[in-house]
Amino acid sequence: MSANSQSAVERHPPILAFVKDGPNLCSLAGLACSIAAIHFSIAGLYSAAMIGMVWAVAFDWADGLIARRMSGRTASSQSFGGQLDVLIDIVSYGVTPAILLLSYGNFQPLFLLAAFIMLASSALRLSYFATFGLADGKKYTGLALDNNSLILVFVFLFERALGSSLFVYVLFAVCLALATLNVSTLKTPKLSGNPVNVYLLAAYTLGITAFYGSRFL
User: Which end of the chain is less crowded, N or C, counting CB atoms within 10 A of the terminal residue's CB?
Assistant: First the structure.
Protein backbone atom coordinates (compact mmCIF):
# COMPACT_ATOMS: atom_id res chain seq x y z
CA MET A 1 0.00 0.00 0.00
CA SER A 2 1.39 3.43 -0.94
CA ALA A 3 1.99 6.21 1.59
CA ASN A 4 -0.87 8.23 0.07
CA SER A 5 -3.26 5.30 0.41
CA GLN A 6 -2.24 4.75 4.01
CA SER A 7 -2.76 8.44 4.74
CA ALA A 8 -6.26 8.35 3.19
CA VAL A 9 -7.22 5.36 5.32
CA GLU A 10 -5.87 6.94 8.49
CA ARG A 11 -8.00 10.04 7.94
CA HIS A 12 -11.20 7.99 8.18
CA PRO A 13 -12.80 8.26 11.62
CA PRO A 14 -13.13 5.03 13.65
CA ILE A 15 -16.43 3.15 13.32
CA LEU A 16 -17.54 3.81 16.89
CA ALA A 17 -17.04 7.55 16.42
CA PHE A 18 -20.36 7.60 14.56
CA VAL A 19 -22.21 6.26 17.61
CA LYS A 20 -21.89 9.72 19.20
CA ASP A 21 -24.00 11.16 16.38
CA GLY A 22 -27.53 11.94 17.64
CA PRO A 23 -29.47 10.60 14.63
CA ASN A 24 -27.39 7.41 14.66
CA LEU A 25 -28.17 6.91 18.35
CA CYS A 26 -31.87 7.15 17.48
CA SER A 27 -31.41 4.61 14.70
CA LEU A 28 -29.69 2.20 17.08
CA ALA A 29 -32.44 2.71 19.67
CA GLY A 30 -34.93 1.73 16.98
CA LEU A 31 -32.85 -1.37 16.26
CA ALA A 32 -32.97 -2.28 19.95
CA CYS A 33 -36.77 -1.97 19.85
CA SER A 34 -36.89 -4.25 16.81
CA ILE A 35 -34.68 -6.85 18.49
CA ALA A 36 -37.01 -6.75 21.48
CA ALA A 37 -40.00 -7.19 19.16
CA ILE A 38 -38.33 -10.21 17.54
CA HIS A 39 -37.61 -11.72 20.95
CA PHE A 40 -41.18 -11.23 22.17
CA SER A 41 -42.61 -12.57 18.91
CA ILE A 42 -40.63 -15.79 19.24
CA ALA A 43 -41.66 -16.02 22.90
CA GLY A 44 -45.32 -15.60 21.91
CA LEU A 45 -45.69 -12.32 23.83
CA TYR A 46 -47.31 -10.46 20.96
CA SER A 47 -48.54 -7.45 22.95
CA ALA A 48 -44.94 -6.70 23.96
CA ALA A 49 -43.84 -7.26 20.36
CA MET A 50 -46.34 -4.64 19.17
CA ILE A 51 -44.89 -2.08 21.58
CA GLY A 52 -41.38 -2.78 20.29
CA MET A 53 -42.51 -2.46 16.67
CA VAL A 54 -44.27 0.87 17.08
CA TRP A 55 -41.36 2.38 19.04
CA ALA A 56 -38.98 1.25 16.30
CA VAL A 57 -40.95 3.43 13.88
CA ALA A 58 -40.95 6.33 16.34
CA PHE A 59 -37.16 6.24 16.67
CA ASP A 60 -36.80 5.86 12.89
CA TRP A 61 -38.79 9.04 12.34
CA ALA A 62 -36.94 10.80 15.17
CA ASP A 63 -33.52 10.22 13.62
CA GLY A 64 -34.54 12.03 10.44
CA LEU A 65 -36.13 14.85 12.43
CA ILE A 66 -32.97 15.34 14.49
CA ALA A 67 -30.72 15.12 11.43
CA ARG A 68 -32.67 17.85 9.61
CA ARG A 69 -32.35 20.20 12.59
CA MET A 70 -28.65 19.61 13.22
CA SER A 71 -26.13 22.12 11.99
CA GLY A 72 -22.51 21.35 11.27
CA ARG A 73 -23.05 17.65 10.68
CA THR A 74 -20.22 16.38 8.45
CA ALA A 75 -20.78 14.81 5.04
CA SER A 76 -19.32 11.52 6.30
CA SER A 77 -21.78 11.50 9.21
CA GLN A 78 -24.67 12.11 6.84
CA SER A 79 -23.54 9.36 4.48
CA PHE A 80 -22.90 6.91 7.32
CA GLY A 81 -26.27 7.71 8.88
CA GLY A 82 -28.06 7.10 5.60
CA GLN A 83 -26.44 3.69 5.19
CA LEU A 84 -27.12 2.76 8.82
CA ASP A 85 -30.76 3.78 8.49
CA VAL A 86 -31.29 1.56 5.45
CA LEU A 87 -29.64 -1.45 7.09
CA ILE A 88 -31.72 -1.06 10.23
CA ASP A 89 -34.88 -0.65 8.13
CA ILE A 90 -34.46 -4.16 6.71
CA VAL A 91 -34.40 -5.51 10.28
CA SER A 92 -37.23 -3.36 11.61
CA TYR A 93 -39.60 -3.56 8.66
CA GLY A 94 -38.52 -6.78 6.95
CA VAL A 95 -37.09 -9.27 9.43
CA THR A 96 -39.28 -8.30 12.40
CA PRO A 97 -42.68 -8.63 10.63
CA ALA A 98 -41.47 -11.84 8.94
CA ILE A 99 -40.58 -13.41 12.29
CA LEU A 100 -43.85 -12.18 13.78
CA LEU A 101 -45.74 -13.95 10.99
CA LEU A 102 -43.63 -17.10 11.33
CA SER A 103 -44.10 -17.27 15.07
CA TYR A 104 -47.86 -16.69 14.96
CA GLY A 105 -48.10 -19.35 12.24
CA ASN A 106 -46.22 -21.82 14.45
CA PHE A 107 -43.34 -21.87 11.95
CA GLN A 108 -45.34 -23.89 9.43
CA PRO A 109 -43.84 -24.19 5.89
CA LEU A 110 -46.56 -22.04 4.31
CA PHE A 111 -45.74 -19.21 6.71
CA LEU A 112 -42.04 -19.63 5.96
CA LEU A 113 -42.82 -18.95 2.30
CA ALA A 114 -44.91 -15.89 3.20
CA ALA A 115 -42.14 -14.63 5.49
CA PHE A 116 -39.63 -14.95 2.64
CA ILE A 117 -41.94 -13.03 0.30
CA MET A 118 -42.34 -10.26 2.85
CA LEU A 119 -38.61 -10.02 3.53
CA ALA A 120 -37.70 -10.20 -0.16
CA SER A 121 -40.20 -7.44 -0.95
CA SER A 122 -38.65 -5.28 1.78
CA ALA A 123 -35.15 -5.82 0.37
CA LEU A 124 -36.32 -5.00 -3.15
CA ARG A 125 -38.19 -1.91 -1.93
CA LEU A 126 -35.14 -0.56 -0.09
CA SER A 127 -32.81 -1.31 -2.99
CA TYR A 128 -35.13 0.49 -5.41
CA PHE A 129 -35.29 3.54 -3.16
CA ALA A 130 -31.50 3.56 -2.68
CA THR A 131 -31.12 3.52 -6.47
CA PHE A 132 -33.83 5.95 -7.60
CA GLY A 133 -34.89 7.90 -4.50
CA LEU A 134 -38.23 9.68 -4.31
CA ALA A 135 -40.43 9.93 -7.38
CA ASP A 136 -40.43 13.60 -8.47
CA GLY A 137 -38.59 14.31 -5.21
CA LYS A 138 -41.84 14.05 -3.24
CA LYS A 139 -43.31 10.54 -3.20
CA TYR A 140 -42.19 6.97 -2.65
CA THR A 141 -42.68 4.33 -5.30
CA GLY A 142 -44.40 1.49 -3.48
CA LEU A 143 -45.70 1.57 0.07
CA ALA A 144 -42.96 2.81 2.41
CA LEU A 145 -41.82 0.04 4.75
CA ASP A 146 -42.52 1.84 8.02
CA ASN A 147 -46.21 1.55 7.14
CA ASN A 148 -45.86 -2.23 7.45
CA SER A 149 -45.24 -2.00 11.18
CA LEU A 150 -47.81 0.72 11.78
CA ILE A 151 -50.49 -1.32 9.98
CA LEU A 152 -49.59 -4.63 11.63
CA VAL A 153 -49.68 -3.06 15.08
CA PHE A 154 -53.18 -1.79 14.30
CA VAL A 155 -54.36 -5.11 12.85
CA PHE A 156 -53.24 -6.91 16.01
CA LEU A 157 -55.81 -4.90 17.97
CA PHE A 158 -58.40 -7.37 16.63
CA GLU A 159 -56.44 -10.52 17.46
CA ARG A 160 -58.35 -11.43 20.62
CA ALA A 161 -61.73 -10.55 19.15
CA LEU A 162 -61.21 -12.81 16.13
CA GLY A 163 -59.45 -15.62 17.97
CA SER A 164 -56.09 -17.07 17.02
CA SER A 165 -57.52 -19.75 14.71
CA LEU A 166 -59.05 -17.08 12.43
CA PHE A 167 -56.61 -14.27 13.05
CA VAL A 168 -53.66 -16.29 11.80
CA TYR A 169 -55.19 -16.24 8.30
CA VAL A 170 -55.99 -12.54 8.58
CA LEU A 171 -52.38 -11.86 9.52
CA PHE A 172 -51.18 -14.04 6.63
CA ALA A 173 -53.34 -12.14 4.14
CA VAL A 174 -52.37 -8.72 5.49
CA CYS A 175 -48.65 -9.54 5.34
CA LEU A 176 -48.89 -10.69 1.72
CA ALA A 177 -50.94 -7.60 0.84
CA LEU A 178 -48.31 -5.35 2.41
CA ALA A 179 -45.53 -7.14 0.53
CA THR A 180 -47.42 -6.61 -2.72
CA LEU A 181 -47.91 -2.91 -2.00
CA ASN A 182 -44.23 -2.50 -1.06
CA VAL A 183 -43.12 -3.49 -4.58
CA SER A 184 -46.03 -1.94 -6.47
CA THR A 185 -45.95 1.20 -8.60
CA LEU A 186 -48.21 2.93 -6.08
CA LYS A 187 -47.01 6.45 -5.26
CA THR A 188 -47.25 7.31 -1.55
CA PRO A 189 -46.31 10.54 0.24
CA LYS A 190 -43.30 10.83 2.56
CA LEU A 191 -45.19 11.01 5.84
CA SER A 192 -42.17 11.44 8.12
CA GLY A 193 -41.29 14.83 6.64
CA ASN A 194 -44.52 16.49 7.82
CA PRO A 195 -44.47 17.91 11.40
CA VAL A 196 -48.20 17.18 11.79
CA ASN A 197 -47.57 13.53 11.01
CA VAL A 198 -44.79 13.44 13.62
CA TYR A 199 -47.28 14.55 16.29
CA LEU A 200 -49.81 12.01 15.03
CA LEU A 201 -47.20 9.25 15.23
CA ALA A 202 -46.28 10.32 18.76
CA ALA A 203 -49.93 10.11 19.82
CA TYR A 204 -50.32 6.75 18.04
CA THR A 205 -47.17 5.38 19.67
CA LEU A 206 -48.27 6.41 23.16
CA GLY A 207 -51.80 5.10 22.58
CA ILE A 208 -50.56 1.75 21.28
CA THR A 209 -48.10 1.48 24.18
CA ALA A 210 -50.85 2.19 26.71
CA PHE A 211 -53.27 -0.28 25.10
CA TYR A 212 -50.88 -3.22 24.80
CA GLY A 213 -49.19 -2.35 28.09
CA SER A 214 -52.54 -2.59 29.87
CA ARG A 215 -52.76 -6.24 28.82
CA PHE A 216 -49.91 -7.02 31.18
CA LEU A 217 -51.76 -5.54 34.18
Answer: C
